[in-house]
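Re: your question about Phosphatidylglycerol lysyltransferase

S., sorry for the slow reply, the queue was backed up all week. Below is exactly what I fed in.
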Amino acid sequence: MGILLVLVILWRADFSEVFQSLKTFDFKLLLTVCLLQLLTILLINLQWHKIALHMGEKLALRDLFYMNMMGTFVESITPSAKTGGEAAKVYLLKARMGLSTGKAAALVGIQKVISLIAFLFLNVVAMTWFFTTVTWEGGQIPAVFISFLFLAGFVVLLMVLMAYPSKLNTLIKKLPLLKRESKDKIMKVMVDLQENVKEALQQKKPFLYQIVLAFTIWLLFAYKAYLIASGLQIQLPFMGIAVVTYLTYMIGMLPLLPGGVGTFEGSMVFFLLPMGIPSHEGVALALILRFVTFWLAFFISAGYLGYQQLTKEQNTIEMASRKPV
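Result:
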C-alpha cells in the first residue's frame, strides 16, 4: 500500500510547478554537487582498494574503477537490489584481475556488508527521528517498515553467508538438477570464500577505518541533497534532509524497478509532504538529486565502458593490420 501511495503522489504532482521550481535552482550549484558525486565515486574506489590490500591483493585503481563502472551500469538496468551489479563485480575480479572465485566473492561481500551496516545504522537513526519529530501519515509506516525489514533481512542473510558459506554445502548436495561436477565446484568456492573471510577478519582495526569511510560516503549523499534543497529554497535543516534522503534510498533498494526509478522520486515527496514541503518542490529536489547520483553515474559508466570497448576494438584492428599477409 505504501508503495502505491508513493506512485500516486508522483502521478498527481503538478509538473508545471515542478518546472518553475527547477528554474529557480542555481545551476552553478549543480557543478558543485556533481563534483561531490565524483568525490563519492573516488572514495568508493579507494574503499575497494584498501579492502583488497587488507586481503593481500594489490589491485590497480584503474581496474577497480572499470569494475565499479560496470557494476553501476548493471545495477542501473536491473531491479535486483544491486545484486546484479555485485555478480558483475565478482566476475570481473576473477576474469580481469585474476582473483579466485572465492576471494572475489569475499571481497565483494565484505565491501557490501561494511557499506550496508553503515547504511542500516543511519536508517535506524532516520526512522527514529522521523517518527518522533514529524506528524506522519499512515502510509509512511508500512512503506518504511517493509523496506527496513527487507534491508535488515538482506544484511543478516549476507552476513550469515559470509561467515558460514560452507554450511550451504549440505543444501547444495541435495540439489537434484545440478551435476556432481557442478556441485563440487560450488562447494569448493564456498570453502575458499569462508577461508578468505576468516583470514580477512583476523585483524579488526582496518575494518573500523572502512566503516568510518562508509559513513563518510553515505553522509556525502545527505550533504548533496542538502545543497540541492538549499538551491531550491527548501527551508529544512540538514537533519531533516538527511532523514528523507536515507529513508528514500532505503525504499529505492526494494527490487521493484531498474535502479529504483519512480519509487525513489515518489518516496522523497512522500516523506517531504509531512514536513510541509509542497509536492512540486519535493519532485524538483528528487529529480536533481536523482540526476546527480543516478543518471550522472549511469552516463559516466556507459560512456567509460563504451570508450573502453571502442579502444579494445581499435587495438584489435591495428594488431590485425600489422600481421604479415
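The radius of gyration is 22 Å. The mean pLDDT is 84.

Happy to talk it through on Thursday.
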